[in-house]
UniProtKB/TrEMBL annotation:
<feature type="domain" description="RNA polymerase sigma-70 region 2">
    <location>
        <begin position="7"/>
        <end position="58"/>
    </location>
</feature>
<dbReference type="InterPro" id="IPR011990">
    <property type="entry name" value="TPR-like_helical_dom_sf"/>
</dbReference>
<dbReference type="Pfam" id="PF20239">
    <property type="entry name" value="DUF6596"/>
</dbReference>
<dbReference type="GO" id="GO:0006352">
    <property type="term" value="P:DNA-templated transcription initiation"/>
</dbReference>
<keyword id="KW-0804">Transcription</keyword>
<dbReference type="GO" id="GO:0003677">
    <property type="term" value="F:DNA binding"/>
</dbReference>
<protein>
    <recommendedName>
        <fullName>RNA polymerase subunit sigma-24</fullName>
    </recommendedName>
</protein>
<dbReference type="Pfam" id="PF04542">
    <property type="entry name" value="Sigma70_r2"/>
</dbReference>
<dbReference type="InterPro" id="IPR013325">
    <property type="entry name" value="RNA_pol_sigma_r2"/>
</dbReference>
<keyword id="KW-0805">Transcription regulation</keyword>
<comment type="similarity">
    <text>Belongs to the sigma-70 factor family. ECF subfamily.</text>
</comment>
<dbReference type="InterPro" id="IPR013324">
    <property type="entry name" value="RNA_pol_sigma_r3/r4-like"/>
</dbReference>
<dbReference type="InterPro" id="IPR007627">
    <property type="entry name" value="RNA_pol_sigma70_r2"/>
</dbReference>
<feature type="domain" description="DUF6596">
    <location>
        <begin position="165"/>
        <end position="265"/>
    </location>
</feature>
<dbReference type="InterPro" id="IPR046531">
    <property type="entry name" value="DUF6596"/>
</dbReference>
<dbReference type="InterPro" id="IPR013249">
    <property type="entry name" value="RNA_pol_sigma70_r4_t2"/>
</dbReference>
<dbReference type="Pfam" id="PF08281">
    <property type="entry name" value="Sigma70_r4_2"/>
</dbReference>
Length: 396
């Protein structure tokens, strides 16, 4: 809805205001008259109509205040790109490329787009960036102000500008999937709406830029994750660890599709961030059991991933692979080193990983303390239940 409205306004703030007004009108009208047959179309129509009214008011103001003129080179706000000839034939993807404007820093591009275009809540965006909610809210506000102050028009980039914005767009889609793959809060582990939307966008991206290995890598990565989504919880909604999942129930069709994509991407040259992650996911998918996973190769891939993407989350995931290759003692040293990284101070997977390693070393009392630390950082009900069950079997 926001994507359709911003095509009218070419201004995110105005479009957001129009969309919010549409929701308010829906609350009033639907309570009185009932929900329409197509609520989405109804909301979009009302938002676009509201946007046009807002623009008329703005034009009137501009006519009366000659000092406030529209920036030179800006197209008419009602111009609507022809879907048949547009460089990006999809509203959602077009708006993501538009918002990943090079005038902003990479983090600002991704955060602003996740919040405004993808509808990810600010606390969830903050969680993805390992920063506090106030910090992220301030970062998004600064990005919007910078765009407004610089008079940057929200225009679809030309075809030649797409590669420059691609890495930020890939990151947006990846983090959108991540936000749905393991919900930060709530009763359910997965938010299927977010994961499904991200997978659709990844397919569109690959269709748009099929020669780019990273678009293939991202799509392959999401396909493998999606293939085992149904086995990540039991019928009661309880979390099931990768080691305990029913591999016979994994959907082999998307895994095969991911393998084809990954093979082509690896032939294109040295693998980058998403191709490496897809390769790790594919090795998990190919293993007949958790224990028979090719852990040495996974550890090698994590080493390379950490070299080109030195993220503390990657380092933590590498520690798990290290524990399977060299044992929990070596991995515990790596995890304890990460405890000195402030970025992971609120990241529940750090103490839960440490707890698992301590449990494997027979240091149960310390493991219990680490599980309690992880519980204090988790607001998702499925994860909390899992951690409480683990804590219950620890003597400490």
């Amino acid at each position: 809805m926001l994507a359709a409205t911003v095509r009218v306004t070419r201004d995110l703030d105005t479009a957001e205001e129009a969309v919010q007004d549409a929701y308010v009108q829906a609350l009033q009208t639907w309570t009185r008259d009932g929900v329409p047959a197509n609520p989405g179309a109804w909301l979009t129509t009302v938002a676009r109509r509201r946007a046009l009214n807002l623009l008329r008011r703005i034009r009137t103001l501009e006519a009366k205040l000659p000092l406030l003129v529209e920036p030179a080179g800006t197209e008419g706000p009602e111009a609507d790109p022809d879907p048949e000839t547009a460089v990006i034939p999809d509203d959602r993807l077009r708006l993501i490329f538009t918002c990943c404007h090079p005038a902003l820093s990479r983090q600002a591009q991704v955060a602003l787009t996740l919040r405004l275009v993808c509808g990810v809540a600010t606390p969830d965006v903050a969680h993805a960036f390992l920063v506090s909610e106030p910090t992220m809210a301030a970062r998004i506000t600064r990005a919007k102000k910078k765009i407004a102050a610089a008079g940057i028009p929200y225009e679809m980039p030309a075809a030649g500008a797409l590669p420059e914005r691609l890495d930020a767009v890939l990151t947006v889609v990846y983090l959108l999937y991540t936000a749905g793959h393991t919900a930060r809060t709530g009763d359910e582990l997965v938010r299927g709406g977010l994961t499904g939307r991200a997978l659709d966008l990844a397919r569109l991206l690959h269709r748009l830029m099929p020669a780019e290995p990273e678009t293939a890598g991202l799509l392959a990565l999401l396909l493998v994750h999606q293939a085992r989504q149904a086995t990540r919880t039991d019928p009661a909604g309880a979390l099931v660890r990768l080691a305990d999942q029913d591999r016979a129930a994994w959907d082999r069709e998307p895994i095969a599709e991911a393998d084809r994509l990954l093979t082509a991407a690896l032939r294109a040259g040295p693998p980058a961030r998403f191709v490496l992650q897809a390769a790790i996911a594919a090795l998990h998918a190919q293993a007949p059991t958790y224990e028979e996973t090719d852990w040495p190769q996974i550890l090698t891939l994590y080493d390379e991933l950490l070299r080109i993407w030195p993220s503390p989350v990657v380092a933590l995931n590498r520690a798990v692979a290290l524990s399977m290759v060299e044992g929990p003692e070596a991995a515990l040293d790596a995890v304890e080193a990460l405890e000195r990284d402030d970025r992971l101070a609120g990241y529940s997977y750090l103490p839960s990983t440490k707890a698992d390693l301590l449990h494997r070393l027979g240091r149960d009392a310390e493991a219990a303390g680490a599980y309690r630390a992880a519980l204090a950082l988790t607001d998702n009900a499925a994860e909390r239940e899992f951690l409480e069950q683990r804590l219950a079997v620890e003597p400490g």
